[in-house]
Design brief:
By secondary structure, this protein is mostly helical. The protein has 70 helices and six strands. The strands form three sheets. The chain has a two-stranded antiparallel sheet. The protein has a two-stranded parallel ribbon with strand order 3-4. A two-stranded antiparallel sheet has the order 5-6. The longest helix has 24 residues, at 422-445. The two termini are 44 Å apart.
């Protein structure tokens, strides 16, 4: 766009027609966007520092002022649309113009905002300036802040007319201005200052202004306007994020001093001392933190400093009487809560200890009151208790009430305990709400520091959860009378004793419930009553407490609190939450139900880990298993009351859908507990209400037919049906009686989610029916009903994908289980529809799954078998791997079942398609294909021609692959054996073909390791078919092998003879693992000589193959070979010892896999030789010995473990470090090999004591053992974590033993403790995944911070821990994120030096890992609220060197981490 075009647009912006102005502004905005894109392609310096832009840019330097003036003019255009477009254009403009125009715009907008005559357009100017602050480049932050900070503070000072604080020429004197105008200006300035602080608060200029801004803003906490107070509190919260720790500490101290001062004023105490102390403190802060540049202003501010934070002082400028003082107290507490929420992690123990008691003054449990309490008082009940409580209330509630005799005649005086005074109640409720919110912040942000005060906080939350002085529920008096003699044994009032009276109590109160339903919500519309906000805050606080006790919530079920005024009745947190299900306000009611649902879910999870025992109705005796655990009798004491409360909510006429959904969610969670939701009667009662919701019956229960509520009902039904905690007969009976017909009718709903969820429920009904002793008639009824409901949905072509898949699953369930109850015509219809879905691409996967299920259960699909097999075979040629996998699994089930019938001939035709997918590029698909082939051969389908033409070439090609392993190798061996057994191939031809595969290995694979693996795989195949061959042919093969080995002399490592010798040795060993070769005359002696001679070969691969073969050939020929191995071990040849131990290891491993029969008789022969080498000087020999002992421990733990324990005791105390280390490594192997848990756990203390050994190798071995236990079997170490393992881990994770080694030309620092630190950190990481319940995450954070500054390998471990656990432990990480900043920044700024190639790539990945950690923490935690971390993120993102790396991290999907 040319300059003339820009000039034309600018001229049109002055047109009289608003449409012309709008279009011109829009075109100008588009031109600026193009200009911004051009600027982004240039170097950063060209954006702001050049005096003129290149000629090809759309806008030149001369046009910039004109555009800025035009946009400023359009901001106060008469058309709102034009104003909005001007604001949009401003957002683009500030990113692509130089510094001077932006400064001009900022000055102009700020002046307009401070102009009292611009009331109508002040909102527009505020939006414009906010847009500028949000979008201006960070490089201009200091300049913009310098222009705006002082102006905004002048605007905030405008309401201080009597003090004439501001002398700035930019501020209009407010003396004659209307209060509402001044208030509006102050509000806008506070809002803008908040934005400015959020964006640029950590920059240098703003940092110098922190103290002044705090003084100015905190003055507004004493404003007459409550909305100004709130806005000021928010601004102070934003400042708290960026101010220094010292200033934050002074800020918090100032706030709590003023809150305490307000408390004294409200009781008639003086406040001069506190005010003078606070003023002196701020003067000291000024001297410490104010820059010389602001000395002139400091002279004026010093007069304010002494009073600016004491906003509620006696005789304050805007307040009078107790009303104003109380408003100020509320503002102070609300501000303190905001600070706690944003920077609670920076508050220390001393500050928490000071603030919690102050807050408790204003929300003490004794001041909570419900309408029932007032009714009791009016009736003259509990007078003595009331007198005692009143005295206590006067003692502790000094912040809430006036002491008798301290009442003056001030017209503004308010008795905050006068429950008949609406204004007093409103002020008191707001203050209580703020205090409870503050407690919530403390519990969430500083759980450890809040722990000493948690009992008092919970007590307060329980009391105020029922704070409802304007409403009487009418049933609490009855509860007090009925349970007034409780001795505290029960966990909640009204709980059953578990002796069968639950149902009677449940039914006896039905009439009372009906009456309660009618008037439960009559007072919901009381607009003047805001006590519900207090209750809501209390419930939110309890929710935070429940989350804090997530790992062990036992105290919330057992510890009791007196929660009612003038009553000694106590309750637990769980009991109180259940009682509050009757709450009249829906927000509070839903909050109570959801809070209890969280508590119940946490409790069930804790029970699964063994922290809590949930007593089930059929296992009441838990004395032995729960001696040291909390036992919760959930079924007897809670379930009836919970179900009763949920039924009440589901049946209430005026209850909202949110309440009913919350009740259903609670019942779904309860179904996971032992005993579920109760017996048949309780299930029937619930299903009655579910039925009315599904039917949309509004005549009797006032259900709205809300679709989301219906969906919740269906999910609940699914949970009940699938839960193992209910009696299947009871559930099925209730389903058939009440829900089956209604569920089938629900399928007519037009919302696909309801339809699909209903189908999923219907798919579970046959499974439930199969668990019962249903009669044939009942099965026929259910089958007929399900068929007529499912078949129409299965036949629909244009249904949603979820509905199609759900209909296939339900049809499969119906056919699999109720096949005998369906007519042949119905079966044929369903099968034809399933086949139709199989041919459709979108429903192909679900159809294959359905077919596999019905075939597995023996359903006759002969009418469609030809089409199904052909279709599945064709799908093997598809590129979608998931379809291939499902098709192969389905084919295997079809072949192994009786589904084929007389159609077996069609299966042979698929061998050609199978051969295409038997390749080493996808070993899992190859494994599944070979399984299909094996199944064909196993059932007698032997298409010889197809096998030789298609299958055999694919098998031979796969057999020589160097990457063939695990399941694919096992399946290949099974197919080869089966081919020989059924005579599908000629044995000798197959043997020669396999052996010839060796000839192509060196030509196609140059890698030595790959060649070795190929030889090993061919050997496995040859041994498999030889073992399956007749004995005569097997003996001939063995003889040929021995002759071929003996015919070769000394060979080189690269000759083909070497490969043939390795192959022969391995084949002999693998054959000996399966059959006994010692029984063949002369073979044993020849093999012994061959193997021992090969130990002296110059080729390492031949020696290893000889060791491998010797160990395996001894498996089935122990008398002939084992004594030779053991006797040779005692010879002095160190190299042969290692090879012989390798043979012994193979011998033991084969027995672990089930070959060779029992080994117990051979252990006494083996152990002495292994013990002789426990302290061998060669580490490789010791490792081999440890492997053997560990494997033997898995086979015979009762024999091996006592020996290892005795050796450990004898060698500890520094006697033999090598022996101790070997024993520990052997335990590592034993644990990894799944040694018996009950046997090994009793020996763990002995081995864990070796952590205290001084030798580093022993410590490292102990850590490796612990890591193996945590990874493979955490139960072994759970009981030793807190007392033994965790303290040692914390110590060893910080251990360093550095030594400088002189290498001649240079010196190198060596840290011998580095492996120990790496092992310790690995254990921490695995504990977080496997057994987080034993981890002190907060105690681990300092260790993690040190690891971030350790060596490269340790740092990478620490990075991975943060990446994987950032979303799981956000609060714990957030509390220590400040300590992560320095090591992360040091890593990211690591100099690469002269690194090249792989070394440079590794260093780059190291730095990138640190960047990834920074990005993840900034997104999944509240780390950006930490000033130092936010500064780090800003510096890194501003650094051009990290732009590419940051983009790569974002592209890697870090945002989803």
């Amino acid at each position: 766009m040319s300059e003339s075009s820009i000039a034309s647009l600018l001229k049109k912006t002055e047109h009289y027609d608003k449409d012309e102005r709008y279009m011109a502004t829009s075109d100008l905005c588009e031109a600026l966007k193009k200009h911004a894109l051009l600027l982004q392609s240039q170097s950063p310096s060209s954006k702001v520092s050049d005096s003129s832009h290149p000629t090809h840019f759309i806008i030149d330097s001369e046009s910039e002022p004109k555009i800025c003036n035009a946009i400023l003019r359009l901001l106060h255009d008469s058309s709102n649309d034009v104003q909005a477009m001007a604001v949009k254009t401003l957002r683009i403009l500030v990113t692509c113009v130089r510094e001077d125009p932006i400064v001009t715009i900022a000055q102009r907008l700020s002046s307009l905002i401070l102009d009292p005559t611009k009331n109508d357009l002040r909102d527009v100017y505020t939006i414009g300036l906010k847009t500028l602050i949000q979008t201006v480049p960070m490089a201009m932050g200091d300049v913009v802040s310098q222009q705006l900070a002082e102006r905004l503070m002048d605007g905030i000072r405008m309401d201080m007319s009597s003090e004439s604080i501001s002398s700035s020429s930019t501020a209009t004197p407010p003396l004659q201005q209307d209060k509402s105008v001044v208030q509006d200006i102050v509000m806008k300035c506070l809002e803008l200052l908040t934005e400015l602080t959020t964006r640029f608060g950590a920059l240098s200029f703003m940092t110098r202004q922190h103290l002044v801004m705090l003084q100015v803003v905190m003055r507004q906490l004493g404003s007459e306007s409550e909305i100004v107070q709130k806005r000021a509190g928010q601004t102070i919260g934003c400042l708290a994020v960026v101010i220094s720790d010292a200033l934050l500490g002074r800020l918090v101290q100032s706030l709590w001093m003023q809150i305490e001062q307000e408390s004294n004023w409200s009781t008639g105490g003086g406040g001069d001392d506190g005010r003078n102390e606070c003023g002196g403190m701020l003067n000291e802060l000024e001297q410490e933190e104010t820059v010389r540049k602001w000395k002139a202003r400091r002279i004026d501010e010093e007069d304010v400093a002494s009073t600016s934070l004491m906003v509620a002082s006696a005789g304050g400028r805007n307040v009078s009487g107790k009303r104003g003082k109380f408003k100020n107290t509320m503002a102070l507490i609300r501000t303190m809560c905001t600070i706690a929420g944003l920077v609670g992690h920076r508050l220390g123990q001393e500050q928490i200890d000071r603030l919690v008691p102050i807050f408790l003054k204003f929300c003490h449990p004794s001041n909570a009151l419900a309408g029932d309490d007032l009714q009791m008082h009016q009736d003259g009940e509990d007078d003595d208790e009331g007198d005692d409580d009143d005295g206590q209330e006067e003692k502790v509630g000094t912040g809430m009430r006036d002491v008798e005799g301290d009442v003056d005649d001030d017209d503004d005086e308010i008795d905050l305990t006068d429950h008949n005074n609406e204004e007093a109640m409103k002020l008191a409720n707001e203050l209580k709400e703020a205090c409870l919110s503050g407690f919530e912040s403390f519990v969430l942000r500083r759980p450890v520091e809040t722990q000493p005060h948690l009992h008092s906080i919970i007590h307060s939350a329980l009391a105020y959860m029922r704070h409802d002085p304007n409403y009487t529920y009418g049933d609490e008096d009855e509860e007090d009378g009925r349970h007034g003699n409780d001795d505290g044994d029960d966990d909640m009032d009204g709980a059953s004793d578990g002796n069968g009276d639950d149902d009677e109590d449940f039914d006896a109160d039905e009439e009372a419930d009906d009456e309660y339903e009618d008037d439960e919500y009559d007072d919901d519309d009381d607009d003047d009553d805001d006590s519900w906000k207090v209750r809501r805050s209390a419930i939110r606080l309890l929710t935070a407490i429940v989350n804090a006790f997530a790992r062990d919530p036992s105290k919330l079920w057992t510890v009791e609190y007196a929660w009612k005024k003038n009553s000694k009745q106590c309750t637990t947190v769980a009991g109180a939450l259940v009682k509050r299900f009757k709450e009249r306000d829906e927000n509070c009611r839903v909050g109570s139900i959801e809070c209890f649902t969280n508590l119940l879910s946490n409790t069930i999870d804790a029970a699964s880990t063994g922290n809590i025992v949930l007593r089930s109705p059929d296992s009441m005796d838990v004395t032995s298993s729960a001696s040291s655990q909390t036992v919760i009798d959930l079924r007897a004491k809670f379930v009836p009351i919970i179900v009763k409360g949920c039924v009440t909510q589901l049946s209430a006429k005026k209850a909202g859908n949110r309440t009913k959904s919350a009740a259903l969610a609670l019942l779904s969670t309860l179904s996971r507990a032992p005993g579920g939701i109760g017996d048949k009667e309780q299930i029937r009662t619930l299903f009655e209400h579910i039925k009315s919701i599904l039917s949309g019956d509004t005549s009797s229960h006032s259900h709205t037919g809300n679709k989301s509520l219906k969906l919740d009902c269906l999910h609940f039904i699914n949970v009940i049906i699938t839960s193992p905690n209910h009696v299947p007969q009871d559930v099925m009976s209730c389903v058939m009686e009440q829900l089956l017909t209604e569920l089938c009718n629900t399928l007519q709903d037009n919302w696909y989610k309801i339809t699909s969820e209903t189908l999923m429920v219907l798919s579970e009904i046959p499974i439930l029916l199969a668990k019962t002793n249903a009669t044939k008639q009942e099965k026929d009824v259910v089958a007929d009903c399900l068929y007529h409901a499912i078949e129409p949905r299965l036949a629909v072509h244009d249904a949603d994908q979820e509905v199609k898949e759900a209909s296939l699953e339900s049809a499969g369930s119906l056919l699999s289980i109720l096949n005998d109850s369906l007519d042949p015509q119905k079966i044929e219809k369903l099968l034809s529809l399933i086949l139709l879905r199989l041919k459709n691409e979108t429903t192909r996967a679900a159809s294959i799954k359905t077919l596999a299920e019905i075939v597995k259960d023996g359903v006759d699909i002969s009418i469609i078998i030809d089409d199904v097999v052909s279709e599945l075979a064709a799908l093997l040629r598809q590129n979608r791997r998931s379809i291939k996998q499902a098709s192969l699994q389905c084919l295997e089930k079809i072949i192994t079942s009786s589904a084929l019938g007389q159609h077996q001939n069609i299966v042979g035709s698929i061998l050609k398609d199978l051969s295409y997918v038997i390749v080493d590029s996808d070993l899992h698909i190859s494994h599944l294909s070979l399984q299909v082939c094996y199944s064909m051969l196993d059932v007698g389908i032997i298409p010889t021609a197809e096998i030789n033409q298609h299958l055999l070439p694919a098998i031979l090609n796969l057999s020589k692959s160097s990457i063939l392993q695990d399941k694919a190798l096992d399946s290949l061996l099974a197919v080869l054996e089966k081919l020989v057994n059924v005579n599908a191939v000629v044995f000798q031809e197959l043997l020669v073909a396999l052996k010839n595969g060796l000839l192509t290995v060196p030509e196609s694979q140059n890698n030595v390791g790959a060649t070795r693996q190929s030889i090993s795989n061919i050997a496995h195949c040859m041994a498999a078919i030889t073992s399956a061959a007749p004995e005569l042919e097997r003996n001939i093969v063995v003889s040929d092998l021995l002759s071929s080995i003996e015919s070769f002399g000394n060979v080189s490592s690269t000759s083909s003879a070497s490969f043939h010798i390795q192959l022969a040795l391995r084949v002999a060993g693998d054959i000996g693992r399966r059959v006994s070769l010692g029984s063949i005359p002369g073979v044993a002696l020849r093999l012994q000589n061959i193997f021992m001679n090969m130990f002296g070969s110059q080729v390492e691969d031949i020696k290893n193959s000889a060791a491998y073969g010797l160990g395996r050939v001894a498996v089935c020929s122990k008398p002939e070979f084992l004594p030779k191995i053991l006797s040779a071990l005692e010879e002095k040849d160190q190299k042969q010892q290692y090879l012989l131990l390798s043979s012994l290891r193979e011998f033991i491993h084969c027995h672990q896999k089930g070959y060779g029969g029992e080994i117990a008789s051979s252990i006494p022969q083996i152990l002495p030789h292994l013990f002789n080498h426990l302290a061998d000087k060669e580490e490789g020999v010791r490792t081999m010995v440890a492997d053997c002992l560990g494997s033997l421990a898995c086979l015979e733990p009762a024999v091996i473990l006592p020996h290892l324990q005795n050796i450990a005791n004898e060698s500890s105390g520094g006697k033999c470090h090598a022996t101790c280390a070997t024993v520990l490594i052997s335990m590592k192997y034993a644990i990894a090999g799944k040694c018996d848990t009950l046997m090994i756990v009793s020996y763990m203390p002995t081995f864990l004591n070796l952590l205290n050994e001084e030798d580093l190798s022993v410590k490292n071995a102990a850590l490796l053992m612990i890591y193996s236990a945590v990874h493979h079997n955490p139960q072994l170490v759970l009981n030793f974590m807190q007392q033994t393992i965790s303290p040692a881990l914390h110590e060893l994770a910080q251990l360093k033993q550095e030594r400088v080694v002189d290498l001649g030309p240079f010196k190198q620092k060596v840290d011998y403790a580095l492996p120990i630190r790496k092992a310790a950190l690995s254990i921490f990481s695995t504990c977080l995944d496997k057994c987080p319940q034993v981890m002190d995450v907060r105690g681990f954070m300092p260790i993690l911070a040190l690891a971030l500054g350790d060596s490269e390998d340790v740092q990478l471990q620490a990075h991975q821990i943060l990446l994987s656990n950032g979303s799981r432990y956000p609060n714990e990480i957030f509390a220590f994120v400040d300590s992560f900043v320095e090591p992360l920044e040091k890593t990211m700024n690591k100099k690469m030096g002269n690194k090249k190639g792989a070394e440079l790539e590794r260093a780059t990945e190291w730095v990138k890992s640190a960047v990834r950690v920074m990005v993840v923490l900034s997104r999944v935690t509240d780390a950006m609220n930490c000033r130092s971390f936010a500064d780090l993120v800003a510096r890194i993102r501003k650094n051009e060197n990290f732009k590419v790396m940051l983009k790569e991290v974002d592209d890697d999907g870090v945002s989803s981490a």
